Amino acid sequence: MLSAVLRRVFLSLLTLFFLAAFIFAATEILPGDALDVTLSADEMAMMPPERLAEMKRDLGLDRPAVERLGAFLLGVAQLDFGRTIISRAPVVDIVAYPLRNSLLLAGAVIVTALPLALILGVSAARWYRRPLDNVVSTGVIVGYSVPEFVIGTFLVMLFAVTWPLFPATITASTRDPALTLLAAAPLPVATILIGSIAYLARILRVGMVDALASDFVERLRLMGVPEWRVLLLHALPAAVVPSLMATALYAAALVSGIVVVELVFAYPGLGQELVRAVTRREVHVIQAIALASAAIVVVFNLLADLAILALDPRTRM
Question: What's the pTM?
Fold first, then answer.
């Protein structure tokens, strides 16, 4: 068990290393640099070449790519992503609060979606191919198929325009307390929640249907085990194990994949900060956000692996 855990931790760290190198290379191939955005075309034309070279040297833009890659990896190991090119502010300070806000939004969705998806998935599997299952399956397909920006627009029209119960955009600022931010974000949470419940309920329903059709469940029923014990104590753990990886990856993707929702509702998360950084060509901020998103996916994947190791002894080999 310990060797399997250590092996997965090592592979996760190795994955993060290669991801960091890939993110650096991906941002390096972008055309131009920060000076192209900071300075206008007239300023670039009027500026002496010596002054332009001096500015590039001060910003570290004249160093070879390999040297900058080594400095980037060393900084990542120390959780130091440098400073922004334009304002010279620490990148960690720029990214910290948007990352917290995106984690808050994703956490609120996950905490709400998991129990609801559990109830829907188990209920649909229990009454497989019956009216309840048909209703749940249809709702799940519709909820998962409709794009989030369509759901968000519909909720704004319904609950911010027709019935003005909630604000159409976020009124809280980036550095507000967590509870203040969540209290101002019921519509973004609801927008992501619909698709999340649909996705998770669909995965759990498939696992529960397979578990309830297995031989060991049939033997339990023949032995007279109560149905609720069969469902909750035997079939559900068997259904959860194959669903853990997909659920963990989906939860991680919520943090880095809700850019559209954040932009629709002006939510101060990583999505807005990433768009702002791309517009300003702030390479260090882009790298920090991309690596933070990748690290979240790797960590969730590792947690799912460890949970599967704990629940299924066969995987320890």
Answer: 0.79
